[in-house]
Specification:
Layout lengths: L3 E5 L24 E3 L1 E2 L6 E3 L4 E2 L10 E5 L3 E6 L2 E4 L18 E6 L2 E6 L3 E5 L4 E3 L9 E5 L2 E5 L5 E4 L17 E4 L10 E4 L5 E4 L3 E6 L7 E7 L10 E3 L2 E6 L2 E5 L5 E2 L20 E5 L3 E6 L3 E6 L4 E7 L4 E7 L6 E6 L4 E3 L10 E5 L3 E2 L7 E12 L4 E7 L12 E6 L3 E8 L5 E2 L1 E9 L2 E12 L1
Antiparallel strand pairs: 1-40, 2-32, 3-4, 4-40, 5-31, 6-7, 7-8, 9-10, 10-11, 11-12, 13-14, 14-15, 15-16, 17-18, 18-19, 19-20, 21-22, 22-23, 23-24, 25-26, 26-27, 27-28, 29-30, 30-31, 32-39, 33-39, 34-37, 34-38, 34-40, 35-36, 35-39
Length: about 450
């Protein structure tokens, strides 16, 4: 007989890992699957904040949600441009906007936005106008080095305005405007454009990306980067810290000037099957400064914690996300998601209430080697279960679900208004090669850790 011992794995802050590694080889603090859980205060496992609606819904899909200078939340819906006034959406500041994919960036004191159908427009904090010059029809926008760059989806070129002049898209000279041809070997059109915080502009194709060097027309040059690492959806290109993130055909990437890193292997099974012919405007991403949130073309949102380098999700808000925006104004400050159904939802309100279901499933644990089995008698669950919520504890002696109705045994239900450590005595099925633990429930819970009393035999 082996000696009795306590094996503690109280850190549950490893996120989810259901990708390319076998279920018994992922880290002890990683979940094999989960839903509607986060770790806002790592490593505490917490239910996500329920979404709360901002104002009344629009009658059509929200085609743009963005922020002017961090203080004015702006939206395009119903073919109109609106701003949030603190209690309600404004009357239309611009009508007749027929585009389906919009892009935006802040430049000097203006919000620059546009689509392929509507060209480029400017919001100055009071009204919306078009340029005094002939602006390009370009759905993809970014700004860098005191210029705005515009890339068209049906084009291989990138246009840029004159130095510090949004109204000049046609003058010559080193301080003037111009067009840069960005060719890919397969002749692919542009799929997006972005810029690092260091000012480096990147133009994306489906299967490649290209970096723009230089300070003006006289010395602009294109450097072709690695092929096979392009972007399928401009709305997924987001700056977080000093990194640029995006969704490619085979995963989610980030780049800060060196070799691009694919960071999505741990959530590979959640990623959609995408090709260069995919309908890409359903994919969107955003950041609150910590998480890179990405909608995967359905009602699922995944989040990459850039502080802890962990993945969280899926989070299901019951809505298809079209845009995300981080709004900093006092009173309505928060991180927002705009939806296909015309709603604008806040995702980070800690005071929001709700009873959404959630789940956490552990890795497949085994002893120090396959020659030994484990006898487990008790678990200790350290958690806080809030009013109206429940926490169920399940145990399984199987490596994975078989689907015959006997995969899991309910061993404990912890009711609402509970806080502390609860002992969970396990049934006499607990001598086995593998074991798994599942926590599930509804409503708000905080889970601080799990200990188990085990013996190797």
């Amino acid at each position: 007989m082996g000696s009795g011992k306590i094996l503690t794995y109280s850190d549950l802050g490893g996120g989810v890992n259901n990708g390319l590694i076998a279920a018994h080889k992922i880290a002890d603090n990683e979940a094999r699957s989960m839903s509607n859980l986060a770790s806002y205060d790592s490593p505490i496992l917490e239910t996500i904040y329920p979404s709360t609606a901002l104002g009344t819904s629009f009658s059509t899909s929200v085609r743009l949600l963005t922020v002017h200078d961090g203080n004015t939340l702006c939206a395009v819906a119903n073919q109109n441009f609106y701003t949030w006034g603190g209690a309600a959406w404004s009357t239309s500041l611009r009508s007749g906007l027929t585009g389906t994919i919009f892009s935006a960036c802040n430049f000097m004191d203006k919000l620059v936005f546009g689509s392929a159908a509507d060209g480029i427009l400017f919001y100055n904090g009071v009204s919306v106008s078009t340029s005094l010059d002939n602006t390009p029809e370009a759905p993809y926008l970014t700004q860098s080095a005191n210029r705005v760059f515009a890339a068209g989806h049906d084009d291989v070129g990138v246009k840029f305005c004159a130095l510090r002049d949004l109204d000049d898209w046609s003058s010559a000279g080193d301080a003037g405007s111009g067009t840069i041809e960005v060719e890919a070997p397969s002749g692919e059109p542009n799929t997006g454009i972005g810029a690092l915080t260091t000012g480096r502009v990147v133009i994306f194709k489906y299967t490649s990306f290209h970096e723009l060097y230089g300070t003006g027309p006289i010395n602009f040059q294109i450097a072709d980067r690695l092929y096979g690492m392009g972007c399928i959806a401009h709305k997924t290109i987001v700056n977080v810290g000093n990194w640029l993130y995006w969704l490619g055909v085979d995963g989610i990437y980030r780049w800060n000037g060196g070799l691009p890193q694919r960071i999505s292997d741990r959530i590979k099974n959640y990623l959609p099957d995408v090709t260069i012919n995919s309908v890409v405007f359903h994919h969107a991403a955003g950041t609150d400064g910590r998480y890179y949130y990405i909608s995967l073309g359905n009602e699922i949102v995944m989040a990459f914690d850039t502080f802890t380098e962990t993945w969280w999700g899926p989070w299901n808000y019951g809505e298809l996300a079209y845009y995300f925006a981080n709004y900093l104004a006092t009173g309505s400050k928060g991180f927002y998601m705009a939806t296909f159904a015309g709603k604008v939802l806040r995702l980070d309100n800690p005071d929001a209430t709700g009873t959404a279901s959630w789940e956490w499933v552990s890795k497949s644990y085994y002893g120090n080697n396959f020659a030994k089995k484990e006898s487990i008698s008790d678990l200790w669950i350290s958690a806080e279960v809030f009013t109206g919520s429940t926490l169920n504890v399940y145990f399984s002696a199987r490596f994975k679900d078989v689907g015959d109705g006997n995969d899991w045994t309910l061993v404990k239900t912890i009711g609402p208004n509970s806080i502390g450590t609860v002992r969970v005595t396990l049934p006499r099925i607990s001598t086995q090669d593998f074991h798994r633990i599942k926590l599930s429930g509804s409503g708000k819970v905080n889970i601080y850790g799990i200990d188990k009393d085990m013996r190797e035999v």
